[in-house]
Amino acid sequence: MEDTGAPVIGLALGSGSARGWAHIGIIKGLEEMGIRPGVVAGTSIGALVGAVYVSGQLDEFADWVSTLTPRDVFNLMDIKFAGGVVKGEKLFGFFQEGYRNPNIEDLEQRYASVATEMKTGRERWFTSGPILPAARASCAIPGVFSPVRIEDRWMLDGGLVNPVPVSTARALGADIVIAVNLNTQLISSHLSKASREQARKQAEENKGEGGFWERVLTSFSKSDSDNDDEDPGLFDVIANSVNIMQDRVTRSRMAGDPPEISLSPLLPDFAFMDFHRAEEAIAEGRRLIKQQTDVIRDWIGESQSE
């Protein structure tokens, strides 16, 4: 990274499952302001979007995720309905076939993916080697995506230890950190109400397709989690537990090392698996940048955004 004498801008992209598509709108909004972060640190979905961005593939990625349907999402996930675990091999195999996979150390911008070492609980930063496996390691949400083995050690989701990696961005040389926190609103379930209704409609319309949508409803939407009289489904429990934990960890870590600029997309009806709603999340990311334009310019200075 070339030393121009200007402050180094860092972007800390937080965890948050489907809400993470808001990162795309935020990055695009910053680029349109003329702001190109020299440092990008990501956790979980933030690591994936950050990896696509620093490898120069964000536009085509945004176009692709905007076309996803609920069926596309579930077809990309090698779901074992009996065990409730997504291996992630199918999804990230798709990325490795369709997207470039450069070495992190060869990139123009500095990048780090934050993961958690399962055996020790240590926070791990991947700052070298192929970028997609590094991002995949950060996305191993407990109970959802299978752990990833890297350097002979099993890795879990980075959100367990550092949901919004402000500290990582600073360690990589950022003077001003823009943090994106997706966990300010608790996720109520694995599927939002709108997505559950869509799945029910599809189940009724496609009864001859081997029960695909029925299995989706059974595994990801056992009950309406807004109704406290019903027992919550397995994946609803996982979604809530992970989100609550990440919210508490985020508050603690950001209190000790606050970013200069904190952005919190408002996506109250977004659930864990609503990856097919990318256009809504991207639009919210863009809206947030427009709303915070003056704050961002005050911190970064007009010279950085001309």
Mind describing the biggest β-sheet? 8 strands, mixed
* Helix and strand composition category: alpha/beta
Radius of gyration (CA) equals: 19 Å
Shape: globular
Order of helices and strands: EHEHHHEEHEEHEEHEHHHEHH
Mean pLDDT: 82
Relative strand content = 5-15%
| Helical fraction | 40-55%
Low-pLDDT segments: none
Q: What's the end-to-end separation, in Å?
A: 20 Å
User: What is the tally of helical segments?
Assistant: 12
Number of strands: 10
Q: What does the model show?
A:
- This protein is of the alpha/beta class.
- The chain is 41% helix and 14% strand.
- The protein contains 12 helices and 10 strands.
- It has helices spanning 22-32, 45-54, 58-65, 70-75, 89-98, 131-138, 166-171, 193-205, 212-220, 234-256, 278-291, 293-300; strands at residues 9-13, 39-43, 79-80, 85-86, 110-117, 123-126, 148-150, 153-157, 176-180, 261-263.
- The strands form 2 sheets. Strands 1, 2, 5, 6, 7, 8, 9 and 10 form an 8-stranded mixed β-sheet that branches. A two-stranded antiparallel sheet has the order 3-4.
- Strand 1 (9-13), helix 1 and strand 2 (39-43) form a beta-alpha-beta unit.
- Helix 1 (22-32) packs across helix 11 and helix 2 (45-54) packs antiparallel against helix 6.
- The radius of gyration is 19 Å and the shape is globular.
- The mean pLDDT is 82.
